[in-house]
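From the methods appendix. Each design record in this collection lists the discretized structure first, followed by the designed amino acid sequence. Records were kept in a plain field format so they could be parsed without special tools. The example shown here is representative of the layout used throughout.

RECORD:
C-ALPHA CELLS (321 positions):
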C-alpha cells in the first residue's frame, strides 16, 4: 500500500544561515512520500537563491514567492496549495529528526488520528542567546499508548498546552472542514490557530520523543519582538478572536480550554514593561470585564448542573431504601 502524502509547509524569511540545514532535515526523512512547500516571504538576504536551487534539484519541493506579509500569510499560502492527506508546519531555522514522519504518520494511519502531538528540545545558535524553554515534554500528562477522544484530549491539553504548530501533525481535512487559517498581520497567531485545531479534533495521540529541535537565535521573531507594542497588540487581537470564538460554541470542554487560553493571555499582558501604562491598563480592564462576565455565567451553569445531579442522587436514594 502506498504511503499517504504529507505536506511540509516552511515559511521562509531571511534565514540564509540556517535554511539548508532545515530543508535537508526534511529531505533526509526515512519516510519518502513528502511534499515540501517553501513560501519565501520577501527575503532579501540570499534565502531566495538557496530556495531556487532546491526547487531545481528536487521534484517534491515547490517554492512560492510573495511580498513580505508575515508568517501567517506564508503558512496560509502553504495550506491553500497543500496536496497531502496530512500537513505539518516547520520553522525555517529549526530541524526535525530523520525518523519523524516514518514513526508518526503510520500511527496516524493505523489509529485514524486527526492529530498527533510530540516532544521537542531546544538548542542555541549563539553564545549570548539564552534558552528560556529547554524542552517541550508533556509525557507527565499524556499516555503515549492511549488514543484520546475529544473530551480527554482537551482536558489533557488544557494542562499541557503548547501553541506552536511545529509540535503536531494534523489531518489536513480538519483545517478545511473547520475553515482554520492563521490570523494575518500579527504575531502570536499560533495561540489562536492551535486552539481552533485542538477543539476540532476527535482522535489524538502523543509521542514523547523529541522529534523537533528548536533553535534559539538572535533576530528571530520571538526574541526580537518580545516586548514590542506590536507583540502586545497582537495578543490583544488574539484575545478578541478567542472571545468571539467562545461565544460561537456550546461544548463545555471547548469553552474550558478557550477560557484557559484567554486567562493565560490576559496574565501575559501584565509582563509588558515597555507599554504605556494607561494603554495597558485599559486593555486589560476591558478583557477582565468581558471574561469575568462570561466566567460568571459559566460557573453558574456548572453549579446548576451539579445541584441537579445532587438532587437526582438524593431522589434515587429514597427510591431504593
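DESIGN:
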Amino acid at each position: 500500500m502506498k504511503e499517504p502524502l504529507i505536506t511540509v509547509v516552511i515559511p521562509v524569511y531571511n534565514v540564509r544561515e540556517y535554511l539548508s540545514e532545515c530543508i535537508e532535515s526534511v529531505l533526509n526523512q526515512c519516510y519518502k512520500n513528502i511534499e515540501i512547500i517553501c513560501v519565501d516571504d520577501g527575503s532579501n538576504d540570499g534565502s531566495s537563491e538557496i530556495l531556487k536551487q532546491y526547487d531545481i534539484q528536487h521534484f517534491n519541493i515547490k517554492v512560492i514567492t510573495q511580498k513580505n506579509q508575515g508568517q501567517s500569510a506564508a503558512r496560509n499560502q502553504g495550506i491553500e496549495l497543500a496536496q497531502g492527506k496530512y500537513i505539518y508546519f516547520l520553522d525555517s531555522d529549526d530541524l526535525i529528526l530523520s525518523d519523524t514522519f516514518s514513526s508518526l504518520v503510520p500511527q496516524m494511519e493505523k489509529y485514524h488520528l486527526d492529530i498527533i502531538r510530540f516532544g521537542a528540545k531546544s538548542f542555541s545558535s549563539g553564545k549570548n542567546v539564552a534558552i528560556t524553554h529547554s524542552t517541550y515534554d508533556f509525557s507527565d500528562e499524556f499516555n503515549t499508548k492511549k488514543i484520546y477522544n475529544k473530551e480527554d484530549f482537551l482536558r489533557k491539553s488544557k494542562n499541557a498546552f503548547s501553541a506552536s504548530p511545529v509540535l503536531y501533525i494534523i489531518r489536513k481535512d480538519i483545517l478545511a472542514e473547520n475553515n482554520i487559517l492563521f490570523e494575518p498581520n500579527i504575531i502570536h497567531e499560533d495561540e489562536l490557530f492551535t486552539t481552533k485545531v485542538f477543539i476540532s479534533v476527535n482522535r489524538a495521540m502523543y509521542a514523547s520523543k523529541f522529534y523537533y529541535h528548536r533553535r534559539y537565535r538572535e533576530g528571530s521573531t520571538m526574541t526580537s519582538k518580545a516586548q514590542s507594542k506590536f507583540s502586545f497588540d497582537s495578543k490583544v487581537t488574539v484575545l478578541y478572536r478567542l472571545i468571539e470564538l467562545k461565544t460561537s460554541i456550546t461544548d463545555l470542554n471547548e469553552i474550558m480550554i478557550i477560557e484557559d487560553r484567554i486567562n493565560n493571555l490576559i496574565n501575559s499582558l501584565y509582563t509588558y514593561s515597555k507599554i504605556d501604562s494607561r494603554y495597558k491598563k485599559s486593555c486589560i480592564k476591558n478583557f477582565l470585564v468581558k471574561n469575568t462576565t462570561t466566567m460568571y455565567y459559566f460557573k453558574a451553569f456548572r453549579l446548576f448542573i451539579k445541584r441537579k445531579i445532587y438532587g437526582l442522587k438524593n431522589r434515587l436514594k429514597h427510591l431504593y431504601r
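APPENDIX NOTE: The chain has two domains: 6-224, 233-317.
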